[in-house]
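Field reference: sequence -> structure
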Amino acid sequence: MKPRIKICCIANEKEAADAVSFGASAIGLVGEMPSGPGPISDEEIYCIAQSVPPPIATFLLTSQQTAHGIIDHHHRTKTNTIQIVDELTDRAYHEIREALPSVKLVQVIHVVGEQSVVEAAELAEHVDAILLDSGNPSLEIKELGGTGRRHDWSLSRRIVETCGKPVFLAGGLNSDNVRQAIETVQPFGLDICSGVRTDGRLDLAKIASFFDAVNSL
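Structure field:
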């Protein structure tokens, strides 16, 4: 089965419509972040999310690290999915579930080494899916996504095999390497931002090439 494709860093309603027209099953809407591309206001996230037809998934990328902060962020944006890009410090996933029972939860794991395999298995129990990215939350100014870097795909494959939940692969994907990514990792989904952009804007030629590469499998 071909992986589902999520186009991230969506900036406006036109980009959302373009992503969906090419076949994206999900879009990513980036909230306030300490670094990285694509953050937009909560008001813009809300408007874009309301413009997207079902069954397209609308992901709120939130850097909030408490259940209370995440719930409040969602109330302002009303997406159907929440992508938690940093550690949930209170581990109170159950509070988010109780407050937002119809919203899907996706936890990002920044793949940095063997410990990421263990972390993914542990956190997968609390969420609907795992998303593997190439950030570094340990830096003084955290990297929580949108780096355009690849990580060790052999570790990603092990997470796919062991975590027990659907896994999205992000980090440095483009039309030239996506076939290798799919064959190596066997992910449920692919998440791409910089690989389909030129000067920060969604590039329709690049997005067409990316989908062509995936659909050629």
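Note: The mean pLDDT is 94.
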